Amino acid sequence: MTIRTGQQYLAGLNDGREVWYDGKQVENVTTFPPFSAAVRSTAMLYDLQHDPRYRDVLSVESPELGGRIGRAYEFPRTRDQLRLKREAYIIWAEATCGMMGRSPDFMNVMVSALAAKQSFFAEFAPARAEAIVNYHRHIAERDLFLTHALLDPQLDKGKRRDQQSDPGIPLRVVDRAKEGLVVHGIKRIATAAPYADEILVWPFPPTFQVGEDAYANVFAIPMNTPGLKTLCRPSFAATSESRADHPLSSRFDEMDATVIFDHVLVPWERVFLHEDIHFLNRMYKDSRMRELTAHQTNSRLEVKLGFLYALIFRLTEAIGSDQKSDMMEMLGEAVACVEVIRSTTRSAEEQATVDPENGVMYPDLFALQAGRALGPVYYPKLVDMLKRVGGGGLIQLPVSLSEFDSPIGPDLERSLRGANSSGRDKAKLFKLAWDVCGSEFGARHELYEMNYAGERSALLAGIQREYGRKAYYSAFLDKFLEDL
Q1: Cβ-based neighbours of 216, under 8 Å, separated by 6 or more
Q2: pLDDT tens, residue by residue, 334-382
Q3: What is the residue extent of each domain of the chain?
């Protein structure tokens, strides 16, 4: 058992997987230009685990697994362990400016959450509980990078899966064999699928209806499994030789993919739930994955919003508007957004409770749900602030910063000079802002932050239904009314 290096991660990707881009099969995902930047950035995260400055936060000796594992795999049993998990999430998020929403720690903590609640799977079948526990050990021992596929193709939303014009499009079980389940169909938006080690499949949202049992399956398989095919969207990764011209999109564009399952055999030891809508509809809540995954996603969002706040502030300084009252008000609002999200993880840790069934300490769900509900509001708000501050300056930028070294360099310097910065430095800053708010990469990130937690209306309705302090505040109000 060991924590992997970046080179070990890269070496594991040349495994015969079937990945398609622009109608052509990709021979080597590690060097293919549309993926190579994200692959290198992921490898960089693995290397950070071996950096003496971060090693003891990013990894930990596991008495349960008998070796050193990534921090995300750990079952937290104390508040201090929860804090260290957050610190580990933040180290990786800061290394990517919060722009890699599906860094390896996200799925690692998700599988850890499922394994921690093996009792839920045991209700379905003891063998499935054993399977999820063994799978957690498998990925922790090998320090694997997982993607996940939740969503069906967008067909007729007014009909059940089995009522579609072609019920065979959504992924479903088509056969059972002695060796496992045979599945066939399609899942979409598997982020990082081309360069992940394995894929976890579980359908979302958990609103399955009678008649959809064949579609209600949770399993995991390697990305090179026979019959598994990955189809990619257009890349938003900039290919400029100068990273400064596209500082984010040249490094952190995560590829999203549609995954085709052509009569794929899933071994029984990789099946965690199958053909049961009732258990599938319960899993999201009863496995308590929300607490542990939201702890990671809110930590990442804190970093991302903080990065945007600093960028907005630097833009106001560059154009000399940082002391204007309207800009100060706007910056104060940005600070408030950052601090609200930042407070959700700390509050959740402070209010954490131990589940007596498994001894795991879970951060407070309702504090974390506040972050999941407000993140889709705050991120577009800060992006809009960037646009308001940058204005036309975001449009009129040189093709490349190397133009400052060309014969027209002096003209560019005069036309782009800032209040307290050179033209080159101001252009570098504005190019970064454009990558966030004006590029295809930036548009994808805004869409991602608005939707990754699911439909916001459903999320908010769920928060109201489950709010654990509802009775307390209602009783407080009722007591006040009684005393009138």
Answers
A1: 203, 208, 273, 274, 275, 276, 277, 279, 280
A2: 999 999 999 999 999 999 999 999 999 999 999 999 999 999 999 999 9
A3: 6-284, 288-453
CA-wise closest residue to 3 among 153, 108, 124, 148? 108
**In whole angstroms, what is the distance from residue 334 CA to residue 113 CA?**
32
Residue 103 CA to residue 198 CA, distance in Å, equals 13
Tokens of 300: 């990442």
The three-state secondary structure class of 45 is: helix
Q: Which fold would CATH assign to domain 6-284?
A: Butyryl-CoA Dehydrogenase, subunit A; domain 2 (2.40.110)
Token readout for 264 is: 């794929």
Provide the residue type at 417 as one letter: R
Q: Is 483 exposed, middle or buried (0-12, 13-18, 19+ CB in 10 A)?
A: exposed
Q: What's the pTM? A: 0.96
State the pairing for strand pair 180-187/257-267: antiparallel
Fold of 288-453: Butyryl-CoA Dehydrogenase, subunit A; domain 3 (1.20.140)
